[in-house]
Write a structure and sequence with these properties.
Number of strands: 21
Distance between the termini: 50 Å
Largest sheet: 7 strands, mixed
CATH superfamily of the largest domain: ATPase, nucleotide binding domain
CATH architecture of the largest domain: 2-Layer Sandwich
Number of helices: 17
Number of domains: 2
Radius of gyration: 22 Å
Strand content: 15-25%
Helix content: 25-40%
CATH class of the largest domain: Alpha Beta
Structural class: alpha/beta
């Protein structure tokens, strides 16, 4: 029976369970999505949470389908890897019970705790230790908000980041995978371990987080009740991968050499380069760049930039308006236009329109995104017509401009020259965004693969099982052979 690997890949709006494996020669990798499910924040008692129980039910359902899929193709699931978004966590007690549904980073509670944290540990000292970009929802601020709300974090409570919480439910083993640990604001970027001095300064218990584990190491094997519910054997391993989805995505960037920038373009955009060591300069802190751990101890030197959340949330608003108004909707542009139709209409819009600060905190929460975008555009005096195509063009223009600005900054701050930009994730399917990014950066863009996160997840598992090569360049060569990218060359703006 051939070795197959199950990738649990959950984003902020949807999740999938994917079965992957290499061909007999180990030269290409194939993925089969066997289960899809929605995800999203839920409001409870005036706060935004994740429905973790619902998510875990879907994970279990997906693993059961994965087991049947593997048997149908005369294979066996050798291991399971889990990746999700970063920073959010669930609190569990000594008996392993989850204390309430995990908060979502979109809730905004962390922002109220920023000043208190900075009053204890200044921003410069935080950056010298963690190298982490300041974002008001980083785990460190969420934990401070717990303290402000009266939560006693001592007494046996532990914080498990979302993929680690799923792994715990599957195996009973409590570990923290390092790439996601590096997004907490409590991880020492140089030492590669928990920043004990920061934990002590903030009156956080040293044992608040479980011990660290590296991608490729085994977290544990399936609990008997999990095995019984999924149809997988109890010997099935749960293997640590780049559990921060961007870490898995970057591991699967099909780059042929070191001089590349990557843009993991999805709900958020992660724009940066891969380095051997963190950049902890004051200039880097001022520019708000982050040093997050990558697979094989690399540094993902990047900046979180606004992403396709602006587009998806706008589409959700327009869809709701169309539903409320009834169909058909009579407007210059029907609100019921599909995304491809809207992007085609946006491509026909004139160049030189208003640009947004896509990083603004005004765009973090859900709500009427087109209205907020038009309000932001009006601040500069330019204004933006109340037409979906105009709003979409503004979003895409603004993202491309932010990408170009970040690629330029990352070269200056890191000293790493960039010859090509790789766009992976959902944004790689957006031809307008890819072309505008090539135009704005003046660099060739290679788009794809869409499923970079799942590929990185599967390949790290395969390597741990001895079914794939050992180095990142070799793994990336497999991705390039399996999923050839689409190239975009820079054009003048009039060439669109």
């Amino acid at each position: 029976m051939s070795k197959l690997f199950a990738a649990v890949d959950i984003g902020a709006s949807s999740g999938r369970v994917i079965v992957g494996g290499l061909d007999a020669g180990g030269e290409t990798v194939r993925l089969d999505v066997v289960h899809r499910f929605p995800n999203g924040v839920v409001e409870h008692e005036g706060a935004l949470h994740w429905d973790f129980d619902g998510l875990f039910t879907e994970v279990m359902a997906g693993l059961a389908v994965a087991a049947k899929h593997a048997a149908a193709v005369d294979g066996a699931i050798a291991s399971i890897g889990i990746d999700t978004w970063a920073v959010d966590y669930g609190l569990i007690d000594g008996a392993g019970a989850l204390i309430g549904e995990p908060f979502s980073y979109r809730d905004g509670r962390g922002a109220a705790a920023v000043d208190r944290v900075h009053g204890i540990v200044g921003p410069a000292r935080l950056y010298e230790t963690t190298g982490l970009q300041h974002l008001p929802f980083n785990t460190i601020f969420q934990l401070a908000a717990e303290q402000t709300d009266g939560r006693d974090l001592a007494g046996g409570l532990q914080a498990l980041l979302i993929p680690d919480l799923i792994a715990f439910k599957l195996t009973g083993s409590r570990r923290t995978e390092s790439t996601n640990a590096s997004t907490t604001g409590l991880y020492d970027a140089v030492a590669g371990e928990w920043a004990s001095e920061l934990l002590a300064a903030l009156d956080l218990p040293a044992e608040l987080f479980p011990p660290l584990i590296e991608p490729g190491e085994t977290i544990g094997t399936l609990l008997p009740e999990i095995a019984a519910r999924t149809g997988l054997p109890t010997t099935t391993r749960v293997v640590a991968v780049g559990s921060h989805d961007t870490a898995s995505a970057v591991a699967a960037v099909p780059a042929a050499g070191p001089n590349f920038a990557y843009i993991s373009s999805g709900t958020w955009s992660l724009v940066g380069v891969e380095l051997d060591a963190p950049v902890l300069t004051e200039a880097s802190r001022t520019a708000n760049f982050t040093n997050e751990r990558g697979v094989d101890g690399t540094t993902r030197y990047l900046r979180n930039v606004g992403g396709l959340w602006l587009l998806s949330e706008s589409m959700r608003t327009w869809g709701q308006e169309a539903h409320d108004a009834g169909s058909p909707v009579t407007m210059p542009e029907p609100l019921a236009l599909s995304l491809p139709e809207l992007l085609a209409a946006a491509a026909a819009e004139p160049t030189g329109g208003p640009l947004l600060d896509v990083d603004s905190e005004d765009f973090i929460a859900p709500g009427n995104m087109p209205e907020r975008i038009r309000a932001a555009a009006s601040v500069g005096g330019r204004g933006l017509e109340n037409r979906p195509a105009a709003v979409v063009r503004c979003i895409v223009d603004s993202l491309a401009a932010a990408y170009a600005r970040t690629v330029s900054q990352v070269q200056e701050l890191s000293g790493q020259k960039v010859n090509v930009v790789h766009i992976v994730g959902g944004g790689s399917q957006n031809e307008l965004l890819c072309q505008l990014t090539a135009n704005a950066t003046g660099l060739p863009v290679v788009a794809g693969p869409v499923e970079a996160t799942a590929l990185g997840n599967v390949l790290v598992q395969a390597r741990a099982a001895g079914a794939a090569p050992t180095t990142l360049p070799e793994l990336r060569a497999i991705v390039a052979a399996s999923h050839p990218g689409v190239g975009y060359q820079p054009r003048t703006q009039t060439g669109l």
